[in-house]
Structure formats: C-alpha cells, structure tokens
Design goal:
The complex is a heterotrimer of chains A (177), B (171) and C (173). With 171 residues, chain B is mainly alpha-helical. Chain B is built from nine helices and no strands. Chain B is globular and about 55 Å long. Chain C has seven helices and three strands; from the N terminus they run ααααβαααββ. Chain C has a three-stranded mixed beta sheet, with no helix packed on it. Classes of the chains: A alpha+beta (177), B mainly alpha (171), C mainly alpha (173). Strand 3 of chain A pairs antiparallel with strand 1 of chain C.
C-alpha cells in the first residue's frame, strides 16, 4: 500500500516535471541559443527587460500616444545578439538556422539582397496578437539575432508605424543603386 | 535571349534614353535611376523584342512612362528647377565655348515648357525622331505633334528675344 | 536670305521635314553672328551641342549587368492581410529610445549606469539597422504598388514578377 502511494506521487511529480520541461522547451531553443552564443570574441549580447511598471512610467513621462504606451506595457523582453564576422568565429545567422526549431515559428519575411540576408519570424497569439518576434540578419561584416517577446498587438504597431512614417518626406524618392 | 544579345540591342540606346529622362525629370540622379528601372524592365521583356518594329521607340515609350509616373507620384510641377542639376550643367566643351551661358539659358527655357512640348522638342530637335514616331510615342496624331512642336519652338524663340534680348557684339 | 526665311517659317509652324531642318541648320551656321537670325542660330547650335551629350555615368553598363545577374529575393507573408511589412524593429527601437530617455522606477531615481547606457545604445543601433532593411522592403513593395492593390489579388499570387532585380513571392499557399 505504501509503495503504491509513493509510486503515484512519483508519477505525479514526473508528469508535472515533464510538462514543465515541455513548456520550457518551447521558448528554450531561442533562449538556449542566446545563452550558448552570448560569450565569445566579437560577440555583443544585450538584454532588455525592464518590466511593465517601469515601461509604463517611462511612456507616461514621455507623453507618448496611447498605442505606444500599450505596446510598452506589453513588451516583456528584447534580446539581441550581434557578432562581428571578422572577430567572431561564428555566423549567428547560419547557426540560428541550424539550431532553432522553426516549426514553432511562422515565417513573415525573407529578404536576400546582394550580401544581405534578413529573416523575420513570429509566433501568433489570440486576437491578432503576436507573442514573439525573431529577426535574424546577416550582412557583410556582421550577423545578429533580435528576439522580442511580449503580447504585441499588430494594430498598434501598424498605427505607430504610420505615425513614425509621417515624418519622412523622402519615402518615395528614387534611390541610386 | 542571352545577356550578350541584350547588351548589343539595348545598351546602345542608353545615351538617348538618358537625355530624354533628364529632360523630363530635370535631375541627373533621378534620370539615371529611371533609366536603370527601364533597363531592368527591358530585360524582363527581352524575349518579345522581335515583336516590336523598333526597340528604340519601345524603350523611349517606357522611359517616358517611367518618368511621368515618377513625376506624378512626386507631384512636382514641371516648372520646378532642380538646383543640383543646374550646377552640374555642362556642355560639350569642344563646341562653342563662348555660348555656354546662352546654352544654359536655353536649357532652362526648354525645361520649363509643358511636358509634352519639351518631350516633343527633345525627340525631334535633339534626338532626330520622325514626326510619325513621336506621334506613336506620345499617342497622338501627326497633326498634333506639329502643333506641339510649333508651340515649343515659338515659345523658346520668344523668350530668347524678349527676356534676354540677346545680341551678339560684332567681332 | 529668302530661303532661310521660308524654312524658318515652316520650322516654327512645325511643318519642316528632317532634310529641311538639316538645310536650315547649315544655313544658320554660315550666317553672321550679328545677323537678325541670331536667336535661331543659337537655338540650333544648342540642339547640335545636346545631340552629342553623353554624360551618363561610366559604370552604368556595369550596374545594369550586375542587377540582371543577381538573384535577389523578397518573400512576404500576407496571410494576415497586413498592408505593409510590420517594422517591429523600428517600433521597438523607438520604445527603447523612450525608455532610455525617461527611465523611471517608483523607488529609485532616474539613474542609468554606464553599462546600461551602453547596452541601450547598442540595442537601439542593432534595431535601427534591422529597421532600415525592413523599411527598404516596404519601399520596394510600394514601388511595385503591391501595397495599394486589393488583397484578393495578392492571395492568388505566388510568384509575382521581377522588379528592380527582386523576385517577389507571397507566402500563404
């Protein structure tokens, strides 16, 4: 009888543990990627996670529009990893493509232009929101990863983008090149 | 079509097309941008070159449309002068050195003509197109091209006479 | 002299032929600089000078051939029916900028350490760079006028066209 109870308990704990492991594994591949590559020559690692209270205070102090305040409240973390190709031995772009499980992500954008490569992925949440963005960039001299997590409302971003865009007169100007 | 054939058929037109683009856009940089876009479009359509009577006319139509679209998007009036292109104005130095200032003035006068007038003048008086070809490209009648040319030429002369009262000194 | 007058009249009516214009040019070239035809003379001299103007950049051919040879691509997901690419990098960069300039914590005063400062600046720069690339995509798409088109048409497209040496593909099949 004692053994049976112990076994059930163990099983319960095991089940709980494995759930935890599975849950963690969902963001773990990007997190562990960041952990793995953050040390090293020519690599810069940045972590920005100020918390919603601090963000909201900053937004209020700046008297930003409500979409901006909403967005700021809902950003959890921004992590950036940059690697200078001359100094570092790794190309983060290539490594990310190998290590990250892109089955969990949806591809949003992919650009290949001469020496430059950019890929953007996102993880959708309910109500037209996005819970994570992942950008990987490779250019001539450096490669970088940008990871943004939170609960991001795409409508807000679109509005903010319009507001930002209004200041640029030269948007439709032809460029040489 | 291979690149080599495209090179031989399309690239020789570049100077003519560039002059036309520059006349319409009044800017060196923008004319070159427009020309690059047109050449890429020509490349896309290279396999239908044989269907056209004249690649040159086809290309000129494309550069005209490209420039006009660009101008519409920018909502520029045709009387705007681009300062950058003004300072970069240069004439063929071997010819008529003394006339440089006058040429600059004429250049400005033509640039300020209405779009179809300056285009017709460029195409006929400088590029040597036939009236029929110009009519096709401007999508109008031969008679109308003559009217447009008449207006352009008369206007240029009138401005020279009235505004500049140009008189050469006797040598 | 009469010949010149005749031809000039035709010319200014837009009725002269190519041959006649050539004759006119030759006659005017011979005319004295102090003649009454000085304005017409200088007009024709100007046209002549413009005919041989070849001042397009020397490497133009090179640029075109390079553009033709490259195989640049842009792939975009329009499943979410967004009108243009979400430039999350630009927005986040702006937000970090705001936070950086207005850091405020209920308990602590607004002090940023040297290290944090550096971190924010580098974060901002990385985002600004990514944002620039995304913005260029938007500009390319605007040139293609894709952004203004009805989205039903877009849904049908998988492969669009070459434009400025890009291949555009729209995901969501």
């Amino acid at each position: 009888m004692f053994n049976k109870i112990l076994n059930i308990k163990r099983l319960a704990i095991l089940i709980l543990l494995s759930n935890f492991i599975v849950l963690s594994a969902q963001t773990n591949d990007v997190e562990s990627f960041f952990k793995k590559y953050s040390e090293g020559d020519g690599i810069t690692s940045m972590n920005f996670s100020p918390g919603p209270g601090a963000m909201e205070s900053a937004a209020n102090a700046s008297q930003a529009d409500k979409e901006v305040t909403e967005m700021m409240k809902n950003i959890k973390t921004v992590k950036i990893l940059t690697s200078k190709k001359s100094k570092a031995k790794v190309n983060l772009y290539d490594e990310a493509l190998k290590s990250v499980n892109f089955k969990d992500w949806e591809q949003y954008l992919e650009v290949k232009e001469d020496d430059k490569k950019v890929k953007m992925y996102y993880k959708p949440a309910d109500n037209k929101k996005v819970k994570e963005f992942l950008l990987i960039v490779s250019e001539e001299n450096e490669s970088s990863l940008i990871w943004i997590s939170g609960l991001i409302d795409l409508k807000d971003i679109s509005k903010i983008q319009s507001m930002m865009g209004k200041g640029d007169k030269n948007q439709t100007k032809y460029k040489t090149k | 079509m291979e690149i080599i054939e495209f090179k031989e058929k399309a690239l020789p037109l570049k100077n003519k097309l560039f002059r036309i683009a520059r006349r319409l856009l009044n800017s060196y940089e923008e004319a070159e941008d427009a020309l690059q876009e047109v050449y890429l479009k020509l490349w896309e359509k290279r396999d239908s070159f044989s269907e056209y009577k004249s690649i040159e006319a086809f290309a000129v139509t494309m550069i005209k449309n490209q420039c006009i679209d660009f101008l519409r998007k920018k909502s520029r009036t045709f009387s705007e002068i681009d300062e950058e292109s003004m300072s970069g104005f240069s004439i063929n130095p071997e010819k008529n050195f003394d006339n440089r200032e006058m040429f600059e003035k004429i250049n400005n006068i033509i640039n300020q003509l209405p779009e179809n007038q300056k285009l017709a003048m460029q195409m006929r008086d400088i590029e040597g197109f036939e009236i029929k070809e110009i009519a096709d490209i401007l999508q109008t009648s031969i008679g109308n091209v003559r009217v447009i040319l008449s207006r352009a030429r008369t206007e240029v002369r009138n401005i020279l006479i009235n505004k500049y009262k140009f008189n050469y000194e006797k040598n | 002299m009469k010949k010149i007058d005749e031809l000039l009249e035709k010319y200014f009516k837009g009725e002269s032929s190519m041959e006649e214009e050539q004759i006119l040019m030759n006659l005017l070239a011979e005319a004295n600089s102090s003649d009454k035809y000085i304005n017409e003379k200088i007009m024709f001299e100007y046209f002549n000078s413009e005919k041989s103007r070849n001042d397009i950049s020397d490497d133009f051919d090179e640029k075109i051939l390079k553009a033709i040879n490259s195989n640049n691509t842009i792939r975009v997901d329009f499943r979410r029916k967004l009108h243009r690419i979400i430039n999350i990098a630009a927005v986040i960069a702006m937000i970090i900028g705001i936070y950086f300039f207005f850091p405020y914590n209920n308990e602590q005063s607004a002090q940023i350490s040297q290290e944090d400062y550096k971190g924010y600046v580098e974060t901002y720069n990385a985002l600004a760079k990514a944002s620039k690339y995304i913005n260029q995509v938007n500009q390319n798409l605007a040139k293609l006028e894709v952004i203004d088109e009805s989205l039903e048409q877009l849904d049908k497209m998988s492969y669009v066209e070459y434009y400025n040496n890009y291949v555009y593909e729209f995901l969501g099949e």
